[in-house]
Amino acid sequence: MANAFFSDLLSTISERGRVLLGRASPANDKQDASELLELCEALLSGRGEASGTAMAREVLDRYHHLDTAGRLSFFQTLARDFGPDHAKLAQAIESWRAKANGDDASDLHFASEPRRQELIRRLNRAPGGTGELVSIRSDLLSLMKGNKDLAALDRDVVHLLSSWFNRGFLVLRRIDWSSPANILEKIIRYEAVHEIRDWDDLRRRIDPIDRRCYAFFHPALADEPLIFVEVALTEAIPGAIAPLLAEEREPVPVEKARTAVFYSISNTQRGLGGISFGSFLIKQVVEELRRELPKLDNFVTLSPVPGFMQWVKQADDVPLTDEDRQLLESLGKPDWPENAELATQLRAVLEPLAAYYFLKARTPKGRLIDSVARFHLGNGARLERINWLGDLSPKGLRESAGVMVNYLYRLDDIEKNHEAYANNGDVIASSAVKKLLKGEGRRLLDMRLS
After folding, report:
1. 88-101 b/e (C-beta count within 10 Å ≥ 16 → b)
2. pLDDT, tens digit, for every residue of 219-247?
3. If you classify domain 168-301 with CATH, what class do you get?
4. In the predicted model, what is the mean pLDDT of residues 102-108?
5. Catalytic residue (one of 303, 371, 393, 400)
6. Tell me: the pLDDT tens digits for 399-427?
7. CATH (one of 1.10.472.10, 3.20.20.70, 1.20.140.90, 3.40.50.970) for 2-164
8. Res 166 pLDDT > 70
9. In the annotation, is 266 catalytic?
C-alpha cells in the first residue's frame, strides 16, 4: 500500500508538472533523437520538483517513439557529449595538485562524474522510471554489438542500477498457487531452463508438498520477479530431470526429504544483466529451507550444460581422435539414446570429455567456458557429479548430448570453495568427476586429458 501511495503521488506531481510545462500528454508521433536530447539538457538544468518529474516522464515517453536508428543516435550522443564537465574537472584537478586533502579529493570525485549519471538519476524520479530504465538498458545491450563507443554509457547505467538493486532492497517471496495470477503468468513466461507448458504444468511445479519456488522482488517493480528458483525436495540426489517433472509422479513426503534440488534458476530482466542476484537468492533460500525442514542434508542443483556440444564441435583443444569424431556424428540421429550399444560407446567418449570441459578447458581469457558452471562454482559450490543422459529433451540433446551435472552446496565449504575459485580459478570437484578425467574404468582417449 505504501508503494502504491508513493507511485500515485509521483504520478500526480508528474501530471501537474505537465500542465506547468504546457505538455498535458506525451507525444505519440515518431520522435527525433536531437529533440529528445534537447529535452535531456533541459532536465539537467532544471531545479523544480514538479517540472523535473514531468520532464523526466516526457523524456521516457518520447524515447519509446524513437526507431532503432534514433535510439542508437541517442545512446551515442549520451556516451559522447554527456560526460564530465571538462572545466569543472580541470579546476578540481588543479586544486588537488596544489593542495591534496580530503575535500579536494571529494571535489575531484564529483567533478569526474559524467553528466549522464545525473540525467539517469533524474529520469528515475519519473513515475515508473526504474522499470523504464531497466527496459532501456535492454535496448542498449542490443545496440552495443558492433558499437564499442557505447561501453562507457553502459558502465554508468550498470553503476547506478547496481546501487538501486543491491541486496538490501530485494525482498524474497515464496511463489505458490495462491500467488497473484499476474505473477504466476510471469513465472510461466520467464522460465528459461525447462519450459512450463501450461497452467497445469506450473501447478505441478509449485503446489505439491515437495515443491517450492522463490523469487526476489524490488519495491520499484512490485509485481515483477527479478530472478526465481524452482526447488524439488527429494530423498536422494537426482541424476535426471524427467522424473522431477513427470506428470504422474508421487510426491515425496516432506518428513522423508533429505535433499533440496535447485533445478531451474531464471533471470527475468535482460536489462539487469551483469547485476548478480543469484548467489544471494540461493543462499537465502537455503536458510529458508533449513528453518522449515531441519532434516535436509544436501543442497544441490540439477543443472544443464548449455555450451558443451558447441565446444565439442568448434574448439581447437578438444581431445578427440578421428575415431571419436566419427562416432560423435551419430549424435545427429534423433533416436540414438534408445540404441543401448551406441549410447554406451558415446558415453565412453563424452563423459571424460565433459570432465575435461569443466576441469581443463578455458576461454582465451582463462575463464571457464560454461556460464552455469561459472555461476555455481563462483558461489562456492562443488562440481559433484556428471549425469549421463540426464536431459533427454530435444534442447538437452542438442546442447549437451543429454549431459547434466550436480553442483553441491556444502554449507561448511562454500566460502573456502569460493575463495579457491575466485583467487586461483580452481574448480573444486568430487573424486568421481576427477576419476572421469583420468579415464579410470573407461576407454582411455588417445590424447591424454592431463
Report:
1. ebeebeebbeeeee
2. 999 899 999 999 999 999 999 999 999 99
3. alpha beta
4. 73
5. 303
6. 999 999 999 999 899 999 999 999 999 99
7. 1.20.140.90
8. yes
9. no
Note if 303 is an active site residue: yes
Query: What are the residue ranges spanned by the domains of the chain?
Result: 2-164, 168-301, 303-438
Which 3-state string (H, E, C) describes the chain?
Answer: CHHHHHHHHHHHHHHHHHHHHCCCCCCCCCCCHHHHHHHHHHHHHCCCHHHHHHHHHHHHHHHCCCCHHHHHHHHHHHHHHCCCCHHHHHHHHHHHHHCCCHHHHHHHHHHCCCHHHHHHHHHCCCCCHHHHHHHHHHHHHHHHCCCHHHHHHHHHHHHHHHHHCCHHHCEEEECCCCCCHHHHHHHHHHCCCCCCCCHHHHHHHHCCCCEEEEEEEECCECCCCCEEEEEEEECCCCCCCHHHHCCCCCCCCHHHCCEEEEEEEEECCHHHCCCCCHHHHHHHHHHHHHHHCCCCCEEEECEECCCHHHHHHHCCCCCCCHHHHHHHHHHHCCCHHHCHHHHHHHHHHHHHHHHHHHHCCCCCCCCCCCHHHHHHHHCCCEEEEEECCCCCCHHHHHHHCCCEEEEECCCCCHHHHHHHHHHHCCCCECHHHHHHHHCCCCCCCCCCCC
As a whole number, mean pLDDT of residues 286-291 equals: 95
**Which residue is catalytic, options 34, 376, 400, 418?**
376
In this predicted structure, the answer to whether residue 136 has a pLDDT above a threshold of 80 is yes
